[in-house]
Amino acid sequence: MNIFRKFIPISALSAALLLSLNISAQTLPVAQPDQPKNWHTLDLKADGFYGISLNQAYQFLKGKKSKTVLVATIDSGIDTLQKDLQGILWVNPKEIPGNGIDDDHNGYVDDMHGWDFLGGPGGKVDFTETTEEVREYNRLKDKYLTATTATPGNEKEYAYWLTVKATYDETIAKSSAELPQIQQFANALMVTSGYIKNTLHLSADATFTAADLAKITDVSPQAAQSKGLWSQVFAEEPSSDNAKIIKEIGEEMAKINNDVTPDLTARQRIVGDDPNVRDGKPYGNNILKLEDASHGTGVAGLIGAIRGNGYGIDGVADNVRIMSIKAVPNGDEYDKDIANAIRYAVDNGAKVVNMSFGKKLSPHKAWVDEAFKYAAAKDVLLVQASGNDNQDVDAKPEFPNDTFADGSGTDADNVISVGASASKLDEHLAATFSNYGKKSVDVFAPGVKVTSIDMDAEFNTADGTSFSSPIVTGIAALILEYYPDLSAKQLKQCILASATPLNGTMVLKPGSTTEKVDFASLSKTGGIVNAYKALDFASKLKGERKK
User: Using an 8 Å Cβ cutoff, are 322 and 303 in contact?
Assistant: First the structure.
């Protein structure tokens, strides 16, 4: 993925924060006022934060009965032991756990809560992958690297090669430039982390948080520099600690390094299948909680974490079951896995599927397109993150998308693409990292400093359309709980109708610090999703879902 994981690319954060290595005691960062951890659920008029008006939505639903909705997340896995997800995870009713037999004959052995398409024998998993352009460049280079024109019959593939080569060159140049920067940043974090632990008399394996920085009384330049650097880091990731941040930096380094010096045998070595061959043979395993399941856990929490239990967060939807499908590594996902993951979700009863991932190339787009159409035929809604590259995806598409390769469609009735918005109605309303597009992005939703659950009873505040998407997925599930006769097409209609166009609201164009655009020009609806308005709209529709 690109990187739709827990945060927008840490490399971007590192580049900005490298400036703070020269920080002095006189230039400590100004503390920013805290916003509520549940701001994404709040109402602009009542609370002053541009959330989704979830309290008003539940007031609207008071006294109404709901029906359980099965939601699938195609992501990095899930912490199946997370307290806020207990009783929320889908349990395959036709499978006997741990017996090593495919009891329900669906091709997946012991798939109790979902499936891992990145898994291999012996509990292995393909954690870190290359980008698609690196894989495709290496697949095609022997055939085309010295070619200057297409040979008869190879015109289409040669044109594709030129796209691959251009994308590859751009990625390698960017990764090669970023790698030494992020290494320098990681080294700075390691050194200053050790200094802070010494200053606070913490053990070598101890962790510290933003709150601990206030306990530092040392006034030396080294202390000021260390405190200043970590203050800025925690300003970006306020609910994290030093160990988690350093781990995430390490994961980003591994991903970038895998572009520059790729491991092209990992898939075959670990999973064992050929991702370029669609042979129908089973692959993967049933292990969903692995060391990289943080992102998928956070996504699941936003959709349906237990409400009102005094722990963690309250999910958007109050009566869902989450099916976890692992198909997204630290790197780009494979088209084969995504196509199979969508079909797995549909075949096992999911009515809404969240897809917080994306990439620049799709060599087997037809496979994924077929899966999109399969979901549509089975009345399943697909909700996807638009991406974190601050680019116009009308002009430069990301994948997957619902502009089908065979020319059969450009805007599927069962697909919603989501951009990311911030908490205040000001010039920063459009997240600086968010992709946008008047034709290709349907709606915006909260995606800046959004808090969800994490692995191992932890919590996480993150940026990304990765978190905007499950908020919309949660709204779709909530609508379907109370209005179960609505079709996937109608669910999309409800969500898009809920977003009031913000015509005339001038915001900084994503990726720019100076250029302003009308917020309404950034998506099809020109607005931000609203749970209350979506439910109100739904209540007036006659359901079209086929029995």
Answer: yes
pLDDT at 468: 98
Helix (H, G, I), strand (E, B) or coil at 7: coil
Residues 65-119 pLDDT 10s: 999 999 999 999 999 999 999 999 999 999 999 999 999 999 999 999 999 999 9
For the segment 314-337, the average pLDDT, to the nearest whole number, is 97
Task: Report angle CA 149, 154, 157 to the nearest 5 degrees.
Answer: 90
- In 3D space, the residue among 126, 164, 530, 482 whose CA is nearest the CA of residue 328 turns out to be 126
Q: In Å, how far are 29, 31, 212, 227, 241 from 209, measured between CA atoms?
A: 16, 15, 5, 11, 5
Residue 458: per-residue pLDDT: 79
Share of the chain above pLDDT 90, in %: 86
How much is the pLDDT for 211?
Answer: 94
Q: Which residues pair with 535 in a beta bridge?
A: none
The CA distance from 453 to 473, in Å, is 16
Residue pair 466/295 in contact (Cβ under 8 Å)? The answer is yes
What's the number of CA atoms in the CB half-sphere (13 Å) around residue 119?
25
Q: Give Cβ neighbours of residue 466 (< 8 Å, ≥ 6 apart).
A: 4, 5, 6, 295, 299, 356, 357, 385, 388, 447
Q: What is the pLDDT of residue 33?
A: 54
Q: What are the two backbone dihedrals, phi and then psi, of residue 42, each rounded to the nearest 5 degrees?
A: -80, 175
Distance separating the N- and C-terminal Cα atoms of the chain? 36
- Beta-ladder partners of 382: 353, 415
Angle at 329 (CA atoms; ends 266, 523), nearest 5 degrees: 140
State how far the alpha carbon of 483 is from the alpha carbons of 201, 351, 486, 492, 534, in Å.
57, 13, 6, 13, 11
